[in-house]
Every structure is written in C-alpha cells, then in structure tokens.
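Methods: example folding runs. The two proteins below were folded one after another, and each record is reproduced exactly as written to the output file, sequence line first and structure-token line second.
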Amino acid sequence: MDLVSIRKSYKRYARHYDATFGRVFATGRERAQETLAPLPGKRVLEVGVGTGLSLPDYPDDCEVVGIDISREMLDVARGRLNGGLPAVSGLCEMDAEQLGFADGSFDAVVAMYVATVVPNPDRLFAEMWRVCRPGGQILVINHFASRQWLLRGFERCLRPLSRAVGFRPDMEFEDFVHVTGQEPATVAPASLFGYWKQVEFRKPAHA
C-alpha cells in the first residue's frame, strides 16, 4: 500500500462510491453517531471523510472537519455542502498520517473504513491520538480479517491485489490493536454479522 496507488484507486471509485457503498456502510455510520452522542458543542475530525456520506448525519450544533487524501472524493463531498450542512466547517485534502492540526484540537476523532486503506495504521492512529484532546473519543470502524475460514481464505487470496483495489483485505484485529498501543474501551459489531467492527478508544483526561 502506498499513497500513489491509494489516490489512483479512489480516483476511480469517486464517481460511483456512493451508489456502491452508501447503503452497505449505512449501519456503521448510524452506530458511530450513537457512540459519539451527545454531539452538541463537540468539535469532530472525520479522517477519510471520502465523498461525505456521513456529513448529513451530524447535528447542526456541533463542528465537523473532514479530511481525505483523494481530491476527487472531496469534490463529491463539497457538492453536498451546497444543500446546506451547518455543522461542516471545513473539508481538506490531507494525509491522515500527517495531520495538519495542533495537539488536542478535537473532542472526537473518527475514522470509518480507513485503517485498512492507509500505508501505516500505526501512524494513522498516532496522529488521531495526538489531535484528540485529553478526555476525548477516538472511533475506528473497519473490516478486520474474518474468523470464518472460507472468508478468511478469500481475503488472503486478495492480498496480492491490495495496491490495485486500494485497501488491505486481511488485517488482523489483534495486530491493529497492538500497533495502537492502547486498550479499546469498547468493541462492537458495526454491521450485520459483525463483518465490520466499531472500536472505541478513550484518551485519558490526564494525557
């Protein structure tokens, strides 16, 4: 996985992403809003905001900043703002592994379906942790390697195609938790049959 192949993949996906993945990922977006609640007054960073599918879900009385590495995906997201989304204060083209925000800038940091896309999940999480304020939330929703033997075998077969498809299909949940260096506060299914997981971290108030 590298930024060049990721950008190429999502340039191809941008036009059709909503139709392909909108309904598939809807449950995960709903669970994220429930976990982040209450949202009024919070400043939220959404890492890998993509086409902005989640942006209409945020209440008007919070502030949301979205970042993504794909200019084409962000162009679609900016089109949503024409309908009026008061909560969204900015959409920026930015590398998730090098966030251009000061330490402790956000009350909550969310990454939905991003951990298997970035080249270095450890750097992704380190940056999310850095920009989250002490006492804040970090929420990761992602697919991890299946425990079902047939799906697991299929995921492993896809591994050589990671650069072409733009994501890592067989990342182990335990490996991801290990590289974060943190213990999750909660782990819950984010979709039917638990194919995607929601992993919540809480940054200590004294951090």
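Second run, written to the same file directly after the first:
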Amino acid sequence: MENSPLPPTAPKPRGPLLPPRARTLWERRVRDPIVMQLTQGITPEKIALTFAVGSACALFPIFGVTSLMCFLAALVWRLNQPIIQILNQLLFPVHVMVFLLCVHLGERLFGVPVAERLMLDPWKMHEKYFEAFWSHPIQSLTFFLKDNADSVTYSIVAWAILVPAYVPVVYYTMRPLMRGIVKVKAEVAAKKAANAPPPTHPVP
C-alpha cells in the first residue's frame, strides 16, 4: 500500500501585527526633506549635471547670491546639495576672474568703452566692497551694485549668453568620466568580494 501524501501543515499563527508608527511632523517636514537633499542625485548622469549646472550658478556674476542659486538649482533639478555647495566654494577664487571676463565681454556686446574704474582690479575691488562681506553681506552687496550697476548688467547679459553653450559642454565632458569612475569602483568591489575568504560559522 502506497503511503498517502501528508496533509499540508497549517501555518503557525503569528502574533498581532503592530500598526506602523505614525511619523512626526518633524520627520515629515524637516528630517525627510533634508535627508532626500543630501542623498539624491548620485548617479553618474546626475553628478555630471551637478558639475555643469552648479559651476554655472557658482560663476554667476553677482557676488553673494551664488549659494542660493546653487541651492535652488539642486532643488529644482534634484541634484546633490553637498556636491553643488562644495563646488560653489571651490570656484570662489575663479569667480572674480569670470566676473571681470563677463564685464569685458558685456561691454563689447553693448559697444561701450571698457570702464577705467577701481572694480577692474580684483584685489582692490575685494578690499573696497567685500572685505566685510561675511559680517555685513547686505550692505556690501548693496554698495557694490550701487557703484557698478551698469557693469553688473553687462556681465549678467554676457553670462546668460555663455551659459546655454557652457552647461552642455561641461555635462557631456563629465558624464563619461563619472561613468568610468563608477565602473572602476564596481570592478574593485567585485574583485574584493571574489577574493574575500568565505565566512566561518562556529561549530554548534
């Protein structure tokens, strides 16, 4: 006589499932958005876009507003906030030179003579307008714009003309580089995993 198949065993009863904890207002409105801003945009394409858009915003020819522009750009395009803000700080020494370049280009576009003024000397410009920027940012920026409104206007126009060509060039230059870095890191991690000794289990 053949053995009859055993009847399926009934699943063991589980204890009552606890309802998920309600998330607090702090978590929903403060913590979660901050975590999302710090961790988003870490694919090779997003990092390349962060370099392209972030450097363009960091070189905007008005001092004191680039951090806000970088923050808003990362918010809109879902870029990585730490990377774009670090890039903004690293490009500060280049900012003055790019500003002066945009001033000269803008003056040529408007057909006005190059201004022979104090602002064309970067060190004297910094000493006059931005030496006390961190203690009095609004006053420094207002003083600078009041004295140099025409040159600032020329520089913004030049920046706006250059940016549509600048951003794609930086993006398509950085994208293969970022993909290569990610590929190398993946290969290194795979080699480490392959060469890692098997886990040892204690004898019961």
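Comment on the second run: The CA atoms of residues 91 and 135 lie 21 Å apart.
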